[in-house]
Amino acid sequence: MKAFASIFVFLCFLWSCQDAPKEEGKSDNTACEEYLSFENRDDQFTGGIKMIPITTDKGTFRVWTKRIGNNPTIKVLLLHGGPGMTHELYECFDGYFPQEGIEYIYYDQLGSYYSDQPDDLSLWTTERFVEEVEQVRKALGLDASNFYLLGQSWGGILAMEYAFKYQEHLKGLVISNMMSSVPEYNAYAQTVLGPQMDPEIYKEIKAMEDAEDFANPRYGELLFEHYYTEHVLRMPPDQWPEAVMRALKHANNQVYVHMQGYSEFGITGDATLKDWDVKDRMKEIRVPTLVIGAQHDTMDPSHMEWMSKEVQNGRYLYCPNGSHLSQYDDQKTYFDGVIRFVNDVDQKNF
Questions:
Q1: Domain coordinates of the chain in residue numbers?
Q2: Is 191 exposed, middle or buried (0-12, 13-18, 19+ CB in 10 A)?
Q3: Superfamily of domain 41-183+274-346
Q4: For residue range 3-44, what is the model confidence (pLDDT) as tens digits?
Q5: Residues annotated catalytic, as ranges
Q6: How far apart are CA 122 and CA 126, in angstroms?
């Protein structure tokens, strides 16, 4: 079934090629063939997949990447959330990027399902993940002439931290559905979103959090039914996309709990990200930046709009019907905005 789905996407792309951007003097078919071609690529044998070695203080491990398409000036590296989730959350990009001629790279960070999963808590630090992204960039041959970094949720934290250290390698930055302050994210969850819930449900959730009873199945059930379907993905549970459910099934809970805590209802317990706050550093980001916020997100959309004004060269994309995974529940707004940003930066219209 998976192979059939891949063939179907491929055929749909071929049918839509007449609408893809083309270089002057080249036919539509030629532009399409070049985007699709693996000829003379070192990943032809694997269909675009590369297992990239990552050097750490604890040894060398491998991370999984898969490149889709060819575009010498637009290459988007996707940083998934979690931490410990997978690239599968972004498989809907297949429905939008190919017909625009945008090259993009799926990537499972170290510890995630398709990459190596070492059992060592010392590896799960923001600083080490930043160095991992830099090693991935070098291995894929990305540079300031073509490298766009798109990070969502935890991936947004990682994208910001990467930009603070390595923005000279970036052509464009997309911060999707992530605030620049975890304490302010927590405050938004506890003082704005929580009180919107049924008071008895909210009281029960808070009681379990105060008791640190996060392993209680009732805690997860209440959050999924009353919070996730309102603020993570605004669809009935039986309509959640298969790729999202697959990503949840493949999540590495060790990484997730160590850094994020037990839920998306703020960062709980002694998770290492609980004090992360870079709002005073946002002005350091010079590279063209798109910040994406959504009305029903777990993150405060007004904070994301502020971030877009705080960076030196920013734009805000607001998804009025979206939540945390607004690439699904406000899909047209999301992809129209991201594609416009990428093309504007590429054509120097930003």
A1: 1-36, 41-183+274-346, 184-240
A2: exposed
A3: Alpha/Beta hydrolase fold, catalytic domain (3.40.50.1820)
A4: 334 333 333 433 444 444 444 445 456 678 889 899 889 999
A5: 153, 297, 324
A6: 11
